[in-house]
Amino acid sequence: MPQGDTGHALLAGLNRVHTTQMGAERIRRNLGLHADDPAAWCRRQIENARAITRRGKNWYVRGDGCVITVNATSFTIITAHRDKEHGVI
Fold it and tell me: Taking a C-beta distance cutoff of 8 angstroms, is the pair 72, 54 a contact?
């Protein structure tokens, strides 16, 4: 379960989390993801995150073998990539 206010703020705004078309393609490519809706996939990862931290203008979400970067102001998923420290998806 994520700790701290920043994680709770992201979870409270989960319905606002989205990405751009370019962001969706970047997420698919970086993770080798075949999901039709990468933003929905990321929202599920955020709900079940091991850790959510905020550094500057972004939240960093560690999930099941990935790290998702979300802009804290706009709730836009910027990118997602494999978590090299904690295994692969």
Answer: yes
**Rounded-to-integer distance, Cα 17 and Cα 31, Å:** 18
Read off the pLDDT of residues 19-41 as tens digits, 9 standing for 90 and up.
Answer: 999 999 999 999 999 999 999 99
- Considering the entire predicted model, what is its pTM? 0.87
Rounded to whole angstroms, the Cα distance separating 67 from 82 reads 6
* Residue found under tokens 């929905």: 40
77-82/66-71 β-pairing: antiparallel
**Tokens matching residue 22:** 């370019």
Q: Token pair for residue 62?
A: 């560690």
